[in-house]
Amino acid sequence: KTSRTTELKQFFENVHNKNVEIVSEDEAIIKLGYEKNSTYLDSQKEKRVRGYLKSEVIRLIGKDNVVILDGSNYIKGYRYELY
């Protein structure tokens, strides 16, 4: 997922001259002080990470920005909520 994120970022910056912001699930887990594997074993931690990711996307989104959320997509409802 991260390599595709890098490709998308380069594409939007170089071809479309857009400002690209990346919100990374892995970085969010670290910022919140969790370990990656333990986060998915504890539903409360996972919920906090998803909340943090959503707030970052909302904060960064704008008409001139492209925001890429680099993370898991196993929760179908969460994908639609962000869309």
TrEMBL record:
InterPro entries: KTI12/PSTK, P-loop_NTPase. PANTHER family: PTHR12435. Keywords: ATP-binding, Nucleotide-binding. Belongs to the KTI12 family. It comes from Pararge aegeria. It comes from the Eukaryota. This is Protein KTI12 homolog. GO terms for molecular function: ATP binding.
